[in-house]
TrEMBL record:
Originating organism: Nonomuraea typhae
Domain of life: Bacteria
Name assigned to this protein: DUF5999 family protein
Listed InterPro entries: DUF5999
Length: 62
């Protein structure tokens, strides 16, 4: 799916969120990355095979 050089990380690699945004819909709270991952504003993910990755926000520093 990715035509960038160097290619973006796959949907199943640990750094998958570093992929380029293909379509952004901030009004709906999601973006499609070029590796097929749907990235939600709460940091949850939906992988191309339907696997859900729970939100993983960084803890707020006190």
């Amino acid at each position: 799916m990715c035509s960038h050089q160097p290619t973006c990380p796959s949907a199943y690699s640990a750094d998958r969120e570093a992929s380029h945004v293909v379509s952004a819909h901030p009004d709906q709270g999601w973006s499609l990355l070029c590796n097929g991952v749907l990235l939600f504003e709460d940091t949850g993910l939906l992988l191309p095979d339907g696997t859900i990755v729970a939100p993983h926000r960084e803890p707020i520093a006190a």
